[in-house]
Design goal:
about 190 residues, binds zinc ion, 3 helices, six-stranded antiparallel beta sheet, 2 domains, alpha+beta, about 30% strand, disordered N terminus
Length: about 190
């Protein structure tokens, strides 16, 4: 399946849907919510419908324009799942078509899918493919996510509660503590 192309899309250059962002916009606070997400870079606008009652799911509808001017209407649903949150409450996930519960979907081609489906990684071009199966690789991705979150977090606490980003950061720290990689980073204690 390896082609001769020398560059693979970098995750951070693609249109993406992030669960924490949906949560921030209160998509999960009612049994049914609809809205629009837009990505300024490519001009894409998606209609989003979130249903949190029985068989929770997210439905995405958008129109893609090809380079030769053709137009493609895309519409599909993905399941939603929850897990208990470390700080109480529950945490939402989107279930990718591959079955993984994930927090970020990328539009690698026509559809939003997880980075595994699109083989999106933060690796350099020279790294071997087998690296992806290494547990350490997941750990390194978590370290990168921590680094990204730390850049993003402007407030650690709001109204006496950790902000959503801070919660995610705390969870990543907790997860990393369970791995074998020694951390040189500081652990936040609340
Ligand atoms: Zn996937």
């Amino acid at each position: 399946m390896e082609t001769t192309q020398t560059t693979k899309p970098e995750a951070n250059t693609l249109d993406r849907i992030e669960v924490w962002e949906l949560r921030r916009k209160r998509y999960f606070d009612a049994t049914y919510t609809s809205g629009e997400i837009s990505w300024p870079s490519g001009g894409l606008v998606a209609h989003v419908e979130v249903s949190t009652s029985k068989n929770p799911n997210i439905e995405l509808s958008y129109t893609l324009k090809g380079q030769n001017g053709d137009v493609k209407d895309i519409n599909y649903r993905l399941r939603l799942a929850t897990s208990p949150c470390y700080f109480g409450g529950r945490r939402w996930w989107i279930v990718c078509q591959c079955g993984r519960r994930i927090g970020v979907l990328y539009r690698g081609d026509n559809y939003f899918r997880c980075r595994h489906c699109y083989s999106l990684t933060y690796r350099s071009r020279n790294e071997k493919k087998s690296l992806r199966s290494n547990p350490l690789f997941r750990t390194l991705n978590d370290v990168l996510r921590i680094s990204n979150l730390k850049d993003k977090i402007k407030r650690e606490v709001y109204g006496g509660e950790p902000t959503n980003n801070q919660r995610e950061l705390n969870l990543l720290y907790a997860k990393l503590l369970l791995t074998t990689l020694p951390l040189s980073d500081n652990i936040k204690r609340g």
